[in-house]
Design goal:
The protein is of the alpha/beta class. Helices cover 33% and strands 24% of the residues. Helix 12 (339-348) packs antiparallel against helix 13 (359-374). It is globular, with a radius of gyration of 22 Å.
Length: 431
């Protein structure tokens, strides 16, 4: 019995003891960085030597109205220190505080509460600068171009009225965009609901739209095109490692700096697997909020054989509303065993699976339903009730031992992968 394996679950390393006879193929752990970077110094260095752009002091004028677009709280980047350092730089350029606004790039996610904003950024900072939640359904969004499909795109008015736009985000493996960060802070970050839906539904299941890929990725290429045309002038992006911690930082041109950061992120998070396994054991780390916990199914699907089993140990802080759960049941009733065919039909016709639901809920539904057709998926959670998990179409277990008992169909000697951090890994099969 193997006893030195673990996954990140419930804010700790939870030991994984494989049953006797199970054959471990890969334990996808990483060596932790020797020393975390000094964030403020790294931001200062990046701002002084940006990629593909001159320093901010040569780009921003004191009279400029500046919009700083900041990612929401689903990522663990040190947003406060990055924002503070950036605002200090703007102050050195003599941009008045009254001419700077901080806009949260929520896409179709929920807004941050005043308490969350103050807790994350501090009373001193929030008392000096306006902090604004983006609303993808707001009536005053400004036309800002069109997608290649011809669909019009609207962008947050405070962002569009600015003379200079700066994005603060994180670079990490992303299931559709290849890597997070870059132009995503603008689109879908501060765009309208309808254009986000059109873009995501059109590109998600197209050839090239996939985890860890930028070249030939139509989803990512559309994001870059909008970052160029609106434009987004500058980014400051943290690069996250397999522990969801800051490993490095880049700043500069939204496309060129992002590509540089993506190369660093690839080196940090890529892991080679010799072949697909019968069973993959993974965790939702670092995701905890609602539909985000589904994202680790994407990398796990890459390294599990068709018909195999994915055991997903998921922390969940909430945001699994009744209509979201009911949508799983209703979709299964309508589409029977052809779940992926049903998903493709909805996306090709731009029809929401969860009517009235945000795009991120619909994406979570689509990825889950598609994976459930191809794999047996066992949800392990102490946060999600058994009945809820089963209504979502998962097999359910309260702990790993119970989950292992549900894997008898795979024989006494199944081959197994163990992934401690399911949401921050870029798996690659050895060809």
């Amino acid at each position: 019995m193997t006893t030195d394996l673990f996954i990140h679950y419930q804010n700790k390393k939870m030991p994984v003891a494989l049953p006797a006879g199970w054959r471990l193929l890969t334990f996808a752990d990483f060596t932790s960085p020797e020393k975390p970077p000094h964030v403020r110094e790294r931001v200062q260095q990046a701002l002084q030597a940006p990629v593909g752009r001159p320093p901010l002091s040569e780009l921003v004028k004191p009279r400029d109205q500046v919009a700083v677009i900041v990612e929401d709280l689903t990522r663990a980047s040190p947003k406060k220190i990055i924002l503070e350092t950036l605002l200090e730089t703007l102050a050195e350029i003599r941009v008045p505080e009254t001419r700077t606004v901080v806009v949260f790039a929520l896409g179709t996610h929920r807004g941050l509460t005043p308490a969350e904003i103050e807790e994350t950024f501090g009373r001193e900072l929030t008392g000096r600068y306006p902090f604004v939640n983006h609303d993808c359904l707001a009536a005053d969004l400004v036309p800002a171009g069109r997608l290649k499909t011809g669909f019009p795109v609207k962008i947050n008015r405070r962002v569009m009225e600015a003379d200079f736009r700066i994005g603060i985000g994180s670079i990490f493996p992303h299931p559709m965009n290849g890597f997070g960060g870059g132009g995503k802070i603008l689109f879908p970050g501060v765009a309208d609901f309808a254009s986000i839906q059109d873009h995501h539904f059109h590109y998600t299941f197209q050839e090239g739209t996939t985890l860890g890929r930028l070249d030939g990725n139509p989803f990512y290429e559309e994001v870059c095109a909008l970052a160029r045309s609106v434009p987004l002038h500058f980014i400051v992006n943290g690069i996250l490692d397999q522990n969801d911690a800051l490993a490095d930082l880049v700043a500069g041109d939204p496309v060129l700096a992002h590509r540089t950061g993506a190369e660093i992120c690839h080196a940090l998070t890529a892991k080679t697997f010799e072949r697909t396994a019968d069973i993959t054991i993974t965790s939702s780390f670092p995701y905890k909020e609602g539909p985000q916990i589904i994202k680790p199914l994407v990398p796990a699907s890459r390294i599990t054989r068709p018909g195999g089993c994915i055991i997903l140990a998921a922390d969940c802080s909430g945001n699994l509303p009744g209509p979201f759960i009911a949508s799983f049941e209703q979709f299964r009733q309508r589409h029977g065993q052809d779940l992926f065919g049903g998903v493709q039909a909805h996306f090709s016709e731009r029809r929401l699976i969860m009517e009235g639901g945000a795009v991120d809920y619909n994406m979570a539904l689509a990825f889950t339903l598609a994976a459930q057709q191809q794999f047996k998926i066992i949800l392990v959670s102490s946060d999600i009730p058994r009945q809820t998990g089963e209504r979502m179409g998962f097999h359910f277990a309260e702990n790993l031992e119970e989950a292992f008992g549900l894997c008898r169909d795979y024989g006494p000697h199944p081959e197994v992968h163990v992934i401690p951090s399911g949401g921050v890994i870029l798996p690659e099969i050895n060809q």
